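User: I'm putting together a teaching handout on how multi-component assemblies are represented. Below are the sequence lines for each component of a complex, exactly as they appear in our records. Could you produce the 3D structure of the whole assembly as structure tokens, so the students can see both representations side by side? Please keep the chain order the same as the input.
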Amino acid sequence: MIGHPGFRVEPWCLRETGLDLDVLAQSESVFALANGHLGWRGNLDEGEPHGLPGCYLNGVHESRPLPYAEVGYGYPEAGDTVINVTNGKLLRLLVDDEPFDVRYGTLRGHERVLDFRAGTLTRTAEWTSPAGRTVRVRSTRLVSLTQRAIAAVRYEVEALDGPARVVLQSELVANEELPAAEADPRAAAVLKAPLRPERHTADGARVLLAHRTANTGLLVVAGMDHVVGERAAPDQPAGPDHPLDASSGVATGTESRPDLGRFTVTTLLAPGERLVLTKYVGYGWSAARSLPGVAAQVEAALVAAGSTGWAGLLAEQRAYLDAFWDRADVEVHGDDEIQQAVRFALFHLLQAGARGEGRALAAKGLTGPGYDGHAFWDTEMFVLPVLDYAVPRAARQALQWRRDTLAVAEERAALLGLRGAVFPWRTIGGRECSAYWPAGTAAFHLNAGIAAAVLRYRDVTGDDEFAGGAGLDLLVATARMWRSLGCFDAGGRFRIDGVTGPDEYSAVADNNVYTNLMAGQNLRAAADGATDHPARAAELGVDAAEIEDWRRAAGAMTIPFDEALGVHPQSEGFTAHEVFDFAAFSTRRYPLLLHVPYFDLYRKQVVKQADLVLAMQLFPDEFTAAQKAANFAYYERLTVRDSSLSACTQAVLAAETGHLDLAYDYLGEAALMDLDDLEHNTRDGLHMASLAGSWTALVAGFGGLRQTGATPCFSPRLPAALTRLAFTVSLGERRLRVDVRPDAATYTLRAGESLTIRHNGEPHDLRAGEPRTLPVVLPPAAPAPGQPAGRAPARRTAGGVR
Amino acid sequence: MIGHPGFRVEPWCLRETGLDLDVLAQSESVFALANGHLGWRGNLDEGEPHGLPGCYLNGVHESRPLPYAEVGYGYPEAGDTVINVTNGKLLRLLVDDEPFDVRYGTLRGHERVLDFRAGTLTRTAEWTSPAGRTVRVRSTRLVSLTQRAIAAVRYEVEALDGPARVVLQSELVANEELPAAEADPRAAAVLKAPLRPERHTADGARVLLAHRTANTGLLVVAGMDHVVGERAAPDQPAGPDHPLDASSGVATGTESRPDLGRFTVTTLLAPGERLVLTKYVGYGWSAARSLPGVAAQVEAALVAAGSTGWAGLLAEQRAYLDAFWDRADVEVHGDDEIQQAVRFALFHLLQAGARGEGRALAAKGLTGPGYDGHAFWDTEMFVLPVLDYAVPRAARQALQWRRDTLAVAEERAALLGLRGAVFPWRTIGGRECSAYWPAGTAAFHLNAGIAAAVLRYRDVTGDDEFAGGAGLDLLVATARMWRSLGCFDAGGRFRIDGVTGPDEYSAVADNNVYTNLMAGQNLRAAADGATDHPARAAELGVDAAEIEDWRRAAGAMTIPFDEALGVHPQSEGFTAHEVFDFAAFSTRRYPLLLHVPYFDLYRKQVVKQADLVLAMQLFPDEFTAAQKAANFAYYERLTVRDSSLSACTQAVLAAETGHLDLAYDYLGEAALMDLDDLEHNTRDGLHMASLAGSWTALVAGFGGLRQTGATPCFSPRLPAALTRLAFTVSLGERRLRVDVRPDAATYTLRAGESLTIRHNGEPHDLRAGEPRTLPVVLPPAAPAPGQPAGRAPARRTAGGVR
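Assistant: Of course. Below is the structure of the complete assembly, with chains in the same order as your input.
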């Protein structure tokens, strides 16, 4: 794990048993806590050392100008960048005047545990100060899934080998100094001091800091409140919260400055005595509301959290997660590392989406500033397919955010000379923030991805209310865009020229198969939705002629096929291009985009990430089995996976085309992207889409799940290393458990009305409490496809790399 | 002319009879003087008012960082920008304490004349000061074609209506304040105070200022020296130069500061008396030599110029131009405006290239800061084809500059993963300065353009010494690039994918016909050149196998053809794209690039500038007559001419395909691009390529000149409006005069050995002094092709627009 022997493989937590400062930044990402609204990176309580400090509020961003040496019409002039908001995590400790800093003195033990069921990050450290005094520190941190404005920390310090004078400073710090941004453009731009102070107050154990962002004018209020626990006796657990007065030997003080709030506790601990502090942190922000209003909201949240109490918050968190795991757990037998990884993934996906009400679900969630905090197409195409089955409310929220930004997308379409809406390639607030149009504006497929997500959410959850409301708005606006973007050719075929598909090593090509299939689906979905919801459609100005026009375009969609090679070209002409000379490249020169100019990548057959292969996953009925096999083998040898959005898709198609061990290898890559920092940028935050991909590789890959209507279809099959795969998917009120073993799969409808599924293409009716066991049919063995030189996935054995 | 009635149509000069400050900046460009080494914009002597002050030294530039919001591998990090060097033009006049400024007082008369035979800009102004004193000012300015470091001004002021105390300040000013750059990205970036003072000296009437550029470290020395003429009696011409001492009533003074040199003359003029001052200005610059060395060089140039004297400089200039016009004049009968325009064009082309020894010939020559002072592909493909016949030494110099930058181009190729050399899309010093690769790096055709220029220069001039030396180096380096850029497909055809042709409204397409034909010619030329010059070839490491490989690639070059439409697609797939909806655009929304995003232009059938049509001009034998007619008509309706590099080519093909009146319209557009400021950016400098295009439209269009080997071929034919077209072309030592009348053309070899020409395809031998008159054969009439809505060229009648 993260190349560090201190990480342990355990089924329900991520445990680090030592501290390696070389991977500190990565550990801060994997140990991040969030609830979709508020995110705290897993920085050490005392703030230093740090890799990258980070506290984020979903939607709070600053704007910065986008420079161009040669400007073009329609280029966005400014971009959104996530900012590090007021840090409420800080708890600085002085022991006999020596600051607790793991870089000095002697760290005798250090353990951190991210508990997927408790929803907490706990830390235990035993440290001897340079002056020779030893203390034990225990902290437990949570970002509440039930009280979205609230995070909390329980901090204990215990004197071990003699009396110790301890001073604990609990802080709020705004405008923390951040490390300089790396040259890698994928890392976020660091904005220095983005918060302008507006007000600071200190009252008892409570401090509030109010700031406003300079360009975007967003008001951000952070508050903290504290409860000092008793000086617990040795070997006794800390008791219930209650404040102590000074007479008990504990002195406290509070102060506030524009960028600093501080609550100080000091006492003299006898050996074996502990000082316990509970810190509640509340956040609020608004683009519209007043400072008194937002401040009051934060104080109310603090009062509510204090009233719930530390034990109450822990209990709520546990209950929330118990319900989640009951709905969404995946059990993997035969590979403990994958078992841990998929739960790690589901936990972080929940953290990213659970309480994102009205805001985007960013590519890095709220775990780091990578990609400037932007949301991309991977939300709809990689993350939501998991949330649909696991946290459907989060999926709906993410789509509602798209609907909320529709007006901005309509303006963008008008600027580009198109009808309907053009959603941004990357954004926080809704406007286009991509400064490189061949891999931004030209990637129109993201619009069809939003439509696909609406369709899929409806199919999986049965939520017709959304589908016929906000969902229909999205379907119609995107369908109108496609109709105006494409054209009928002389032969009556509908073409979409000059666009960029998912593969970012090709750009601005004609009739990208993925794009055209997605656009066709989008047009049909809008036609169907408008037919099903005529009143809303009429409000949107949709008439019968427009519906018919959409169907005609969808029905005439151009899907190029290379008869000579017997494969689908990713885009028209793709298979005629020179194959990239992979042999000339050492693996050290990947990702190629850092070593090869775009022009050379675009003109050759080299694939960054699944494109045609993703189309085969999403449109299983548009390709014959023979085409799938031929296409998969063809693209496999061209795909370098310089994107985290590829291994999971390759796993799914590898499994479908009978390459189960290869699928297993790709599962490993997808599942360990962040835990093993395979792309060397986990420091900037976790890859939500790749985390989702570990679920997809298992459930869609080895479970064979496909769903293009109300009926989930399975074709389960396990690689040799796995002895069992069991997972639960939610289908609205229904809970369906699928338990796959090498020879048979058992389907159990745990809750909800009876359901039809397909198993290997055959329909079966399920009733609650009546499990059905059906035989696994392994696909015929096929010759192993090749990969680009040096880019075959690491061969995986159960629990590790061969 | 420039929308101003004050401009006169005269055959041998450009005369402006009034001063309109609204077109001052444009007039500064058209009245610019230059010699290829040094350029002075036609700013008023007194400096103010000005549109855009400008003094340029070819090659003197500063470097500036190129910003990217999203950087990519291989993007250039810095760009070159031409800078305004020390201004030596300034002559400020005070009349009784009132500064002579045309904006104040009363301007009773103002005339400027650019004389194409004298090579001078003369100015006469009669002005009454706000205080009521009237003076006449006469100035004559030249930039010497014979003494490349030297410019000179003769300035006379005469009191007309009473005694006047006049003070004349002759200045050198460095780091002049420039107007802010416009938002139009095509205008140059303004660099504030680019010159760092190094030394300033004043001695008698001589002042020197030495500066150095900050980033590029170029030393720039400007010096001036003066001769004060006698107080000439009324109505007598000024006498020979001789200095006057103070006793004659004239007081002088000299001073210097870091950014200012000044020589002051003051006297009291009786009515009818004149003060005459002759100012010699010398420039020198170097990247390597010392300040004393360069300063001495400037002083030497000043001494030489002073020794030549004003009358001597005028005589040298006249003699130089007489020889030029004898070699290169074009007579147009029936359209005085075109007559004037083509001589204006030839004069400015001479000024741009005459003395450019070792430096680039920039797109704007030395007439303004447009395009940052960069040279582009148009030098080789539009300007040199004229200079080959008119100023062959300048053509050779421009190619030698390419050879001198070969090492930089080889480094660029290596960076891009290619063999040989990749020359920059835009540059001053030789490095790539284009920050937008789809219309920069991807426009590889420019490399073949350099090879074509080598080939053409050799064919026209017979200069085998250059062709087998520096020329061969260029041919081999570019051929190697093409061989590594392209590939053989499965069917054995040679493909070149993902490149941008001349049409900048398409980009990154496969098998652009122009590019592929040019690349094939490049490969063949390298093979032929290496075969003809085996020793040099061996030094370059060329062996028989490589030669054979080049020939094989050239022979298998892919040239797509659309059988259904019967036309060549500009690039593969082009004709399948949607045709741009021209009808939706008003003419006010041209150029399209300011109103339509690139992605939309690239994906549709819309052509910025001749691309396939240019290929038909350059490769007359690669297309049948029927194909030429069909292709011309097809592309005519798609071409919006948002570039100055289009009308001349369209004129040539319109003439060839029988649309003589349309060709005449395009001739008008090409010839008047700058004189009528058709693209609204003449203020930033003249379009050298379009100026060349006026010659091309006449000589290649109505003269029908094509030359792909040693034999010039003509197919003369006149539009109805022209009664006669006569031109001289130089072919090495030969002078061939072609005199075309409606029914017959007369070919006269005026000097040199006997020559074979072709007339309408048939060979004819010419001997000096034996004119041959041959019949004109008009092409069959063809139906008029259409143009995009609102983009038909202005219909031209003799001498103006219908």
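A couple of points students might notice: The CA atoms of residues 614 and 649 of chain B lie 6 Å apart. The mean pLDDT of chain B is 94.
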